[in-house]
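Researcher: Please predict.
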Amino acid sequence: MKMGNMDNSIEVTDLVTQYGDRVVLKKISFAIPRGKNTVILGGSGCGKSTLLKHLIGLLKPTSGKILINGKDTTVMNEDEFNEVRKRMGVLFQGAALLNSMTLEENVALPMREHTKLEDSTIQIMVRMKLDLVGLSGFGKFYPSQLSGGMKKRAGIARAMALDPEFLFFDEPSAGLDPVTAAGLDELIVNLRNVFKMTIVVVTHELPSVFMIADCVIMLDRGEVLFAGSLEELKASGNERIRMFLERRPETETYSPEDYFRFIAGN
């Protein structure tokens, strides 16, 4: 994960995000290795969702660089970044499926928007993607007819539609029972093993971290507290990391003003 390494697919350097007087990300730097599962970890309000929005181009940082395959996306215009987006698949927290479309239509949408494939070819590819995530036979179903876990799987199928180089997941286990969450974690691991994609997962769910992570970027109060392998994270003696991994509560007390400032930042 060393900066400047050709084995890195994403490198973030001195990234700052500021809203008015509030600094959300404080000059953070790290690298994401190619073909691995990297988890962005941290508690509520630490800046991990803001960071994800920068990586997928939904937000521009105040300053700093984000290199994807060596190209700085922070200086790209919308058309230039759209070309980068075609190599990305994203699963948003609520799956973000279009309720008026069947699963087949949802998965086919990126292919219809960004390719000139014939309809017969698209239909074949859609069936392949749904089969890949364990939803073979559910193509005619609407999102409202599915469980939460099935919606997440359908979202992954759509994210995989254009055979992306990068997959980004925003809290994939949120709202799922432990068994369903474990099945989704297993799917994420299988996608890495089979397709050798670079996968970035934002989460605070420790069971998922321990199952899927090759590497971990841990944020704390807008700063990078840790960047390294999962085994290095587990072995860390840092008190803030130990508190998180051992689920120990904060011992600090906050004034009402501090509390409401914290809530406003989440």
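Model: Residues 96-163 form one domain.
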